[in-house]
Amino acid sequence: MNFDLTEDQEMMRESFARLLDDKCTPERLRESEKSGFDKEVWAGLAELGAFLLRVPEEQDGLGLGTFDAAVLMEEVGRKLPFGPIAETLLAARLIAMLGTDNAADCLANVVSGGTVASVALHDTASRPSQFVAGGTVAEIVIGRRGDEVVLYEVPSEARPAEKNLASDSLAEVDLASAKSTPLASGPEAAALFEATIEEWKLLTSVALAGLGRQALKMAAEYASERKQFGQLIGQFQAISHPLADRLCEVDGGKLLAWKAMRAIADNETDAAAQVSTCLWWNIDAAGKAVSQSLQTFGGYGLTTEYDIYLYTLRARSWPLVWGDPQLLLGEAATRHYGKTSVYLPDVGDLPIEFDIGEEARNVMAEIDAFMDANVTPEMREKFHYSWEGWVPELHKKLIEAKLMFLSSPELGGRGIGPYAKAAARRTFDRHGYNNPAAGVAEMVGLMISRAGSDELKEEVLSKIMSGDSIASLGYSEPGAGSDVFAAQTRATPDGNGWRIDGTKMFTSGANLSDYVLMLTRTNTEVPKHKGLTMFIVPLKAEGVTIQPVHTFQDERTNITFYDNVKIPDSWRLGEVDGGVRTMSLALELEHGGGFSNPMLHTVEAAEELCSEIDTGMGQKLIETLDAQQRLMKARANVAVSLLFEHRATWAGVEKKPNLAYGPMAKMFSSERFMDDARDLMNLTAPLSLTKRKGAAALINQSYRHAHGTKIYGGTSEVHRSMIAERGLGLPRTRA
Fold first, then answer.
1. Mean pLDDT of 678-704
2. Which of 30, 123, 199, 259: CA 20 to 30 A from 362?
3. Kind plus residue range of the DSSP H or E element containing 492
């Protein structure tokens, strides 16, 4: 798995970045608005080989792939140089690949920057006059006319300048009055042109991702300097949290574009749908990002004194030359559900890789075989995503097969790598057996192994490792919410041991567990996070009371009371007042997990119901464009959620800087799970209101389940603050 550029690509990116940083100053950008073009910047790009990137080596080009061109386009999005850059480099590729020797001079002029070229995005046979990016300055336009690919030499009078949204060189070009020279004709030529339009979608997607991220960066920098009511406005969650949401969308859009390129390279059957999806997503994400960023500037953002207005206008002007973005979602849906055949570009080599590896595939296959051989119908009936889905006999069998504590050799596991660990979690989830019992048992077991006494290891750890016992977590307290460091449950020295008094809320699994990992207050004279100590407390000890708390999710939790509960000092974990350090001993279990699996199950269930529901108009619901678009939107959310999970795992493996990739994976997926669960329930109503066994029950459950995902494991609000701080550099929003 890899999310990094190669050294050569990083050097290329830096070269383009230096040029654009130097030339695309605020003053020059405003001056360029007068003509919609900057000749000096254009010449600089040509000198660095921008327009040679996709020209094959046999035509004296650089022969690089789509991803390399995308590296340039992300920088274009960051700095907003004027001119049809993506269109020109693609036009150069078409001329090189289809043109005869007569086109050699034309190609030389284009790649040297002497002639600006563009591409007509729609068939010129049916649209002889159409809007063209950079049309007012493009002397050459490459278009498709039926099955011909045509080079149009456009006179200036056929491409008149007119006022437009972004004051760029957009023009409605009359190609019928241009001199046309066929470059090639027939199915292969038409296919190459169609593939070029798909590549334009990919490059435009990445440019929009670069634009959106830069807009958010500008907003974050402003919010880190501007004060209101005596505070930096970036400290206000009303400012930082929406920016965090937009960052997730923009990053997700970039990853979708990368994934679409990878899908093309790997010949995935759904690659064409992914191309349409990623442009639709990035148009929406960039639009929201610039609007939220401008809002951060307040009234100043409306003025032309601040650059944010340039991003706000360009976020619309670049992609809308194609047409209504909603049509792209329809196109994606038709390609996915209608299995439409589309010609795609030869993207060449790219370093981005989402392969989980052989170890992960082997573990997944072993888990599949184990579950098929050992799970009975009675067990499966009990499966649930909550603690109540724990099946003791299956738990013990998994431990015997060394499939339980997979990443923890000290607990008898195999010590598999993070990619395989994440894949195993998703595989159990696919079988419906991914309840918290195993994960918490592993975490508690590691803490005892690393910070527990010999007595605790003999009495408790041995039972956890054998599968005879599990443990729950005693962190949350009434009134404390997500702030576990506000714990008030007291541990008071008592002879050679301790007395525990207090209440813990949401002690899920306490009714099934033998032990609870307890976070207690042992010192009130120091900052709250320093006066905490951890213990293992037997739940059958005298003074422990477990009271059920039922949820509408079919998920039981508990409130637990501790009244004069006595435990020996040997059941303490770590140093007195060193609870935070003890908690960190199992941090490697952090996997940046999200909810892509239950999200996918919900989409698949909705697809199943849509295939059964009659519209009353002679067709099934799945055959309607509206249903397909809504399902496709949900699939896009699943894809981004999984990509975020992959990125978080990769960042941990590669020891990358902590840019809140884990919180992004969790927060984004939980929020989109909620959105999609609601919408797919609407789509399949009223059948989805029932709990009929199968797809209807799953959609019903997902709607209820999704509400909890935004709360447990850290609320969305806490994760938004982490994303804002680590991902955007905003000031801390929590006391």
1. 97
2. 259
3. strand 490-494
What is d(CA 404, CA 442) in angstroms, rounded to the nearest whole number? 8
Q: If we measure between CA atoms, which residue out of 539, 699, 528, 727 comes closest to residue 609? A: 699
DSSP letter for each residue of 147-178: TEEEEEE--GGGS-----TT-SS-EEEEGGGS
DSSP line for 551-575:
-TTS-EEEEEEEEEEEEEGGGEESS
CA distances (Å), 729 to each of 229, 242, 254, 293, 723, in order?
21, 14, 20, 14, 9
Burial class of 623 by CB neighbour count within 10 A (0 to 12, 13 to 18, 19+):
middle
- Name residue, tokens 């009078």: 157
Contact 92, 107 (CB under 8 A): yes
* pTM score: 0.96
In this structure, the answer to whether residues 659 and 567 fall within a common structural domain is: no
pLDDT, tens only, 613-644: 999 999 999 999 999 999 999 999 999 999 99
**Nearby residues of 311 by Cβ (< 8 Å), 6 or more positions away:** 80, 211, 214, 215, 218, 290, 293
| pLDDT tens figures, 313-326 | 999 999 999 999 99
In angstroms, what CA-CA distances link 672 with 585, 600, 703? 31, 11, 12
**Per-residue pLDDT tens over the stretch 101-147:** 778 999 999 999 999 999 999 999 999 999 999 999 999 999 999 99
**Is it true that the peptide bond before 128 is cis, omega within 30 degrees of 0?**
no
Q: Are residues 477 and 399 in the same domain?
A: no
Q: Which helix (H) or strand (E) holds 490?
A: strand 490-494
CA distance 600 to 591: 19
Boundaries of domain holding 629: 596-728
- Rounded to the nearest angstrom, the gap between the alpha carbon of residue 286 and the centroid of all alpha carbons in its chain is 15
